[in-house]
Amino acid sequence: GLNCAIFLRSTTHYINEKLIEDGIPFVLKDKQIYLPFIGCLLSNSGERDIAPVELLSFLTQKLILTAIYEKWEKVTVSTAAEKLGVSKTSASRCFDEIEYLNANIIDTKGKSRAITIPPDVKQLWKQIQHILRKPVIRRYVFPSDIHLEKKAGITALCEYSLLSDNDFPTYGVMKKELADTEIKKLKQIRRGEEIGCVVLELGYFIDYGQKSIQDPLSVALSLTDEEKQDERVMISINEMLEEYVW
Which ranges in the chain are annotated with CATH 1.10.10.10? Predict the structure, then answer.
């Protein structure tokens, strides 16, 4: 009974999304009317109601930054799902979050929702920066260098600029990779010990350019307030974004 109702509801929702995406007119009695030739979608069913979003998910943030790098134009839910290697349902939730937070990169007119990145990426960044979150879940500090593959944070910034790195490297590791690295089993530094390396546990990682280096926008979001107090760091961030993003 209940499971059947849920299945029918989700199936109907999927079919409706597919019809809208393909621009096929349809009428569901007392529910939805879709007329693409006049750009009209009316609904009383509440199936397109967007749930409130308190904090942007890591997947949605990854989608937004990927869209910026690749300069997406009229990219639909299906295409976005393919680009990120996720399900259409997951991509659709990302679109819902972006729409709810009013990031102004989704076009809801016409036959489907689609993401288009405006030409002035620098201005867009200023507009959406307040809804973005730090990619760093947790910061580990170890007394010796454990030599991980991905460079992140301040070390990644140094790769993108002329800034000199600390005496120790900063690495990035995804949450799902923690078990393989056995990081949680390692002892972190005690007070007074010299730092061997810093490891940032990241909520997402974007394959940007050199795949072993955190992407520029995420680097800017990952730096600590203490690091940003250094004028040289701020100059390097601006140089990095000017060269690689804007």
Answer: 50-133
